[in-house]
UniProtKB/TrEMBL annotation:
Organism field: Helopsaltes ochotensis
Classification via Pfam families: Cupin_8
Domain JmjC: 104-268
Protein localization: Cytoplasm
GO CC, alphabetical: cytoplasm
Chief location: cytoplasm
Source organism phylogeny: Eukaryota, Metazoa, Chordata, Craniata, Vertebrata
Record flagged with keyword Magnesium: no
UniProt protein name: HBAP1 protein
PROSITE patterns associated with the record: JMJC
């Protein structure tokens, strides 16, 4: 029945905080009212309120389609549904410049507490208490609504772990372990406080520019309605909607393990803002992600750094002797919710996020440790591609919550994106809205260096980790 749950809240929390590989929970949310949050229901609840949609081309280039190269419109969910269904009413609406066959739309990172601020009773439809986090509801969660092809560029979240409930439609997740960081060519441009992006377009990798990507190991899963994906701390992910309309709800679980990394993120902010702010604005380099309102001053960035260092030292004082507060194992969940992309959200004070610590901080769990995890029909491990069948296609795992697909995606992506590549844009308002940054393409000279090349070295995770350690040693 709907009330049956295979794991107690205590056991679910233990799994969430200890498992360092992605996994899917099944049969845990059957009685959640949020299971009925499809787009039609949400449209009725919003009652004509507009939200922002990000629009991108379905054609896939060798360069990731970062948010700085997307277009944005304000629209109601009713208008979004009409557009995604190809209704004639869209000829004069906010989506009128965007042909559905050529574009996708994504209302991403929408904080439920903000868009439903006049309907706080709806927060209780989301019950993360079933996963061992009492008091965590829709108020601490984020809503994602997209059309087919809507995607998030490959990135890692700088802090915490992530629980994602699929409500409507399916999404395909490509996840990479923290140890693959160097193979994914991390960059902080475009800069966002709590995200480290990959230079590689996972859907169509440029192996000439990024040959080490061949050494990465993707863990691929298709998430279906009713399933909850655990994205462990610092796992890279590229996510794409594969059905006409998708709805997801997630919550970032902040961890005490993030304290040292907050110091690293504060250092990164200081360096990126100082170097990029010194450039000529006329260069047209869109280095700030749209989620960042403006480049913060050196004085404010120094305040961030001091707050992060103070929080780290306070954590060290209260931690168990001999056990570092930033240890990735056995970390305790903090009571306050993570506020990713907090600078855009009302009521979220800007505070330092985190950056990836050394890659070796997250070893693959030992065999005996993995045996203690109760994998089975209710908790399905997301396996690396190399461990799957060599037959091109899909391997379905049956569960009451729907089919969970561990897939060999290489052939799927090749066929899908070759087809998309043939789509051409002819509308003037389409082509004008999607000019890529001049420095995103292949370098015209093998010897010319640019500011972003220097920054990629200065704020490389390994460099920042060393700087943070030296800085913290001075404070002890």
């Amino acid at each position: 029945g709907e009330d049956f749950k295979p794991f107690t809240p205590e056991k679910a929390k233990e799994i969430v905080l200890s498992l360092q590989q992605p996994a899917v929970f099944c049969n845990m949310v059957g009685d959640w009212p949020a299971q009925h949050w499809n787009v039609k229901y949400l449209s009725a609840m919003l009652d004509g309120k507009t939200i922002q949609f990000r629009l991108g081309l379905k054609t896939v280039d060798l360069v990731p389609q970062f948010e700085t190269s997307c277009s944005y419109v304000e629209a109601t969910l009713e208008e979004f549904l009409a557009w995604s269904c190809g209704q004639p009413s869209c000829l004069s609406g906010p989506f009128s410049c965007y042909d559905y066959s050529k574009y996708w739309a994504y209302a991403d990172y929408k904080y439920i507490a903000r868009i439903f601020e006049d309907k706080p009773e709806i927060f209780q439809d989301v019950r993360w208490s079933d996963f061992g986090f009492p008091g965590r509801s829709g108020k601490e969660s984020t809503l994602w609504i997209g059309s087919e092809g809507a995607n998030t560029p490959c990135h890692l979240d700088s802090y915490g772990c992530n629980l994602v409930l699929q409500v409507q439609g399916r999404k395909r997740w490509h996840l990479f372990p923290p140890g693959d960081t160097s193979f994914l060519y991390p960059t902080r441009i475009p800069y966002e406080e709590s995200s480290v992006f990959s230079k590689v377009n996972i859907a169509n990798p440029d192996l000439k520019r990024f040959p080490e990507f061949r050494n990465s190991t993707a863990h691929v899963v298709t998430l279906s309605p009713g399933q909850v994906l655990l994205v462990p701390r610092h796992w890279w992910h590229y996510v794409e909607s594969i059905d006409p309309v998708t709805v997801s709800i997630n919550s970032w679980i902040e961890l005490d393990a993030d304290h040292e990394a907050r110091v690293e993120e504060a250092i990164t902010r200081m360096l990126v803002c100082a170097v990029k702010s010194a450039e000529n604005p006329s260069d047209g380099d869109l280095w700030l992600n749209p989620t960042e309102v403006e480049a913060t001053s050196h004085e404010i960035n120094l305040q961030y750094l001091n707050k992060a260092v103070s929080a780290y030292l306070k954590c060290q004082e209260t931690s168990v002797p001999g056990q570092a507060c930033s240890s990735s194992t056995g970390a305790k969940q903090r009571t306050n919710a993570s506020c990713k992309r907090k600078r855009r959200e009302v009521g979220c004070e800007p505070e330092s996020g985190t950056l990836l610590t050394q890659e070796c901080d997250f070893p693959t769990p030992k065999a005996e440790e993995m045996q203690k995890i109760p994998f089975g029909p209710h908790l399905i491990q997301v396996l690396p591609q190399s461990h799957k069948t060599s037959v091109i296609g899909t391997v379905a795992v049956e569960s009451a919550g729907g089919d969970l697909l561990h897939e060999n995606e290489g052939e799927h992506f090749r066929k899908l994106h070759c087809k998309r590549k043939r789509l051409l844009t002819s509308n003037d308002c389409e082509t004008a809205a999607h000019q890529m940054d001049s420095d995103c393409g292949p370098c015209t000279s093998q010897t010319a260096l640019f500011t972003n090349d220097l920054l990629d070295c200065l704020v490389n995770p390994r460099v920042i980790s060393l700087v943070a350690q030296l800085l913290l040693e001075r404070m002890r």
